[in-house]
Amino acid sequence: MRNTSFSKMAVLPVGLLTLALTMPSCSSNEYKKLEGDKAKQVASIIRNNGCMECHSATANVPFYGKLPIIGPVVQADMKEGTHYLDLTAMLTALDNGKPVSEVDLAKVENTALSGSMPPAKYYTMHWGTSLNDDEKKVIISWAKEARKNNYVSPTVAEEFANEPVQPLVAFIPTDSAKVALGFDLYHDTRLSGDNTISCATCHGLNTAGVDRKQYSEGIHGQFGGVNAPTVYNAALNFVQFWDGRAADLKEQAAGPPLNPVEMGSASFDEICAKLAEDKELSKRFLEVFPEGFTESTVTEAIAEFEKTLLTPSRFDKYLSGDKNALTAEELEGYQLFKDNKCATCHVGMNLGGQSYEYMGIKENYFDYRGTGLTDGDNGRWAVTKNESDRHKFKTPTLRNVMLTTPYMHDGSIQTIEDAIQVMHEFQIGRHISDAETAKIVAFLNTLTGEYNGKLLQ
Q1: In this structure, is residue 413 part of a structural domain?
Q2: CA distances from 160 to 29, 72, 145, 170, 224 (A)
Q3: Does one domain contain both 323 and 276?
Q4: 335 and 272 co-located in one domain
Q5: Residue 290 sits in the same domain as residue 339
Q6: Do residues 390 and 396 lie in contact, with contact meaning Cβ atoms separated by under 8 Å?
Q7: How far is 430 from 407, CA to CA, in rounded Å?
Q8: What is the pLDDT along the chain (457 residues), one digit of tens a residue?
Q9: Whose CB among 146, 151, 212, 358 lies 3.0–4.6 Å from 83's, allowing a Cys bridge?
């Protein structure tokens, strides 16, 4: 297959050169008319440099995308471009003066800094689309300003304020009485149908917020279809669950108790009736929630507790100004992490959890896995039923990643080294050496954090 593809690619330059003679330049200086409004300048650059032709799910296939030999390659590039970044939502935000997502910001900024877009074969047909130095300056300046206005951590040192990742906030405001109740309910097996499973069963606080199994074991020995993500720092995710079906921690907490494979309760009325039989718990609960046990109050208490599960690490100390917090090797690993685009998806304070990403941009991950597709592989599609969302998953946090094996949504990767190499091959199409991998591993070790003053194990 690879040899056949290479043979087709070999004839592409001739065909593309022929097309280039008939194609107009896409270059435009329209953005200069918008000086003073960087957001609208960036929107203009994106539109007038042809970016939407490969970075929009609704883009029309151009006439040359229907030609023999060239056509399949063009269409594959369009699909790959959209899988990596659909700019539609970003353009809408820019046009309306709204913040763009932290991930879109990082990806567009990385493109301007690296000069990686557009691909050479696209530029051959659309000369003038490559970002010139002035356009790059506009984008980089806008990105820095947008990050400062919307995503910079209050604990970051000034020199690191424009990093794509940020140090944790010291805390999230909570109600201490609700937190105490939430802690108890989080560990309460009465939330399950047979009183055997609690939240902590699959998200143990002593095991980095996971159970370190490929699939979690629920009621009656049943197994789920995706790997349990960590509860630590989950409050920083933009949605909850791999497929994003819960908007926040409270909504997430309502899911597993009623899931027949996980905790298997018939209803929250059943759960609340069991809890109400506990006179001491009822007394404490009524003091905080006068309305008593309901789905809303129980899940609110659990969510309030989970907001406290932040795990500051050595890396946060470094970003907050402690230059001695990291070793030279760890810093080299961090630089590789950024150079290899890891920090375009694993962004912000949680180093992830801010976007849905397509699994297998460069190569088919599921063919590589070789076990056939499962319902869990559908990802975001399970919620939206939009075909463009199939195989897209909420990016996991990399905090405490050294402790949360196995990896990926399917829990199929056992070691962090294999996970790094798989992500490089399937997401950016690059082989990474063992030496580079070791340096990235050294960096990832700095993300292991503390909870209640103790380093997670």
Answers
A1: yes
A2: 33, 43, 14, 17, 41
A3: no
A4: no
A5: no
A6: no
A7: 19
A8: 233 333 334 444 444 444 444 444 455 789 999 999 999 999 999 999 989 999 999 999 988 888 998 889 889 989 999 999 999 999 999 999 999 999 999 999 999 999 877 666 665 555 456 899 999 999 999 999 999 999 999 999 999 999 999 999 999 999 999 999 999 999 999 999 999 999 999 999 999 999 999 999 999 999 999 999 999 999 999 999 999 999 999 999 999 999 999 999 999 999 999 999 999 999 999 999 999 999 999 999 999 999 999 999 999 999 999 999 999 999 999 999 999 999 999 999 999 999 999 999 999 999 999 999 999 999 999 999 999 999 999 999 999 999 999 999 999 999 999 999 999 999 999 999 999 999 999 999 999 999 999 999 9
A9: 358
70 domain residue, yes or no? yes
CA distances to 65, 214, 377 from 223, rounded to whole Å, are 45, 9, 15
Query: Which residue among 306, 335, 353 closes a domain?
Result: 306
Query: Is 0.85 surpassed by the pTM of this model?
Result: yes
Domain boundary among 265, 281, 306: 306
| Residue 301 and residue 321 in one domain | no
Q: In 52-190, which residue ranges form alpha helices assigned H by DSSP?
A: 70-84, 88-95, 102-114, 120-125, 133-150, 176-186
158 inside domain: no
For residues 147 and 270, membership in a common domain is answered with no
Could you tell me the residue range of the domain that residue 357 belongs to? 314-455
- Report CA-CA distances (Å) from 193 to 253, 258, 259: 15, 9, 10
- Same-domain check for residues 366 and 407: yes
Q: Is 158 a catalytic residue?
A: no
200: enclosing H helix or E strand: helix 199-202
Establish how many alpha carbons lie within 13 A of residue 358's alpha carbon, considering only the half-sphere containing its beta carbon: 20
298 and 376 share one domain: no
169 domain-assigned: no
CA–CA dist 140, 411 (Å, integer): 37
- CATH (domain of 266): 1.10.760.10
24 and 72 share a domain? Answer: yes
State the Cα torsion 379-383-388-390 to the nearest 10°. Answer: 20
Number of domains in the chain: 3
- The span from the first CA to the last CA of the chain, in angstroms, equals 45
Per DSSP, 403 falls in state G
